[in-house]
């Protein structure tokens, strides 16, 4: 979806449940997170996992409510081996033993090397190849939810070939 003055802004992102499902199919695979066009260092560390429920008003004064899981990644060479899918899932499992984690929650990764400020990222669907799972992280952009909803409606109606009740329109 295009934002005025912005390049193409994708809304494609995965949930915690979708990520864990993919990792569960290849538990011994190395798990690589990529951001800014490069992989995190092989010794990256999961420093914190947080779960939150949020409520607010968007810029159109519409009430919004959602749950979100934050996974903090420290981009360092702090371990002798790269993390596997099994180990990452075990970390999330340990957190789930203490906190209620909504597997359908919005998933946000906080990434920093310990020097630069943390940056918020969303995750794309994992790419699985050989003995590696690659999760591409992209910056989480700001958006105007009323405008995004309006654009989605416009896209849906413009792809229709006739009146809303015609056979080719859902």
Tell me about this structure.
The protein is of the alpha+beta class and 170 residues long. It has three helices and eight strands; from the N terminus they run αββββαββββα. Strands 1, 2, 3, 4, 5, 6, 7 and 8 form an eight-stranded mixed β-sheet that branches. The radius of gyration is 19 Å and the shape is globular. The N terminus is likely disordered.
Helix count equals 3
Q: How many strands appear in the DSSP assignment?
A: 8
Beta-strand level of the residues, as a percent range? 25-35%
Query: What's the assembly state of these chains?
Result: single chain
**Mean pLDDT, as a whole number?**
88
Q: Spell out the helices and strands N to C.
A: HEEEEHEEEEH
Could you provide a short overview of the structure?
The protein is an alpha+beta fold. The chain has helices at residues 16-24, 85-98, 145-158, and strands at 30-35, 38-39, 45-57, 63-74, 106-112, 119-123, 127-129, 132-139.
